[in-house]
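Schema walk-through. Below, the input block comes first and the output block second. Nothing else is stored per chain. Lengths vary across the set, and this one has 78 residues.
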Amino acid sequence: MRFAPISVVFAVAATAAATNIPPNGAAVEQVQPAASCFWSGTSPFCAGACPEGYQDVETSNCGDGACCWTGYKKKCCK
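--- output ---
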């Protein structure tokens, strides 16, 4: 039985779509959800600290806005 070339292409594309593999054969990377983060510390007298359950991932003099005259801001993420 002979298949038209378009039928073969369609079958390969349908199989790739069903198995979550693009037609070029590369694996699809799973996207992780964005972490829940915020900056702690308010200028000008910053005293940033992360609450329980959050991890300190970055320390900055300015963070996401106005810079601190004293102390630092902390970026806290879950």
